[in-house]
Fold:
Amino acid sequence: MAIAVYPGSFDPVTMGHIDILERTSQVFDKIVVAVVHNVTKEALFTLDERVDLIKKSIQHLPNVEVECFNGLLADFLRARDATVIIRGLRSITDFEYESHMSMMNKSLLPDIDTVFIMSNPCYIFISSSGIKEAALLGGDVSGLVPAAVEKGLQEKLQRYLFKTK
Ligand code: PNS
Structure:
């Protein structure tokens, strides 16, 4: 059984991520989305909120599961019997960062490989940080994020406006 892990911050998950899951879930028997607790990055959504938003957005993908983790990605893969890391690529800038990360993971756990998948051209400009900035400044991000995320962003915006009044 080929098990792959799709790791990331997913703060929040976008249609670009969902598109990658839709395509790779046809290739692997099981995919575990690993939502990272990154102490160096301040997140808009809590870890639980991010996991919940992904779960709500992948109900049509029965072989995809969602978990959170902290620590080494290589250890997470080993514990799940996974042999592949999935990462999306949007640009050459992504490639530079991703290639180093993939080599580091390979040196930590030689049995694993990173599979890169090009983002769908219609989502290539989307990033979680761009989505947050646009949404929190009142921009319309419908179609760029799943419906559950759009609602979550609106709730964050309302809370932010209420706090600053
Ligand atoms: O969505 P992101 O923030 O680009 O994802 C980066 C992520 C989570 C894949 C990366 O930071 C990671 O793998 N973190 C876990 C810690 C780890 O294993 N580091 C060593 C590999 S460079």
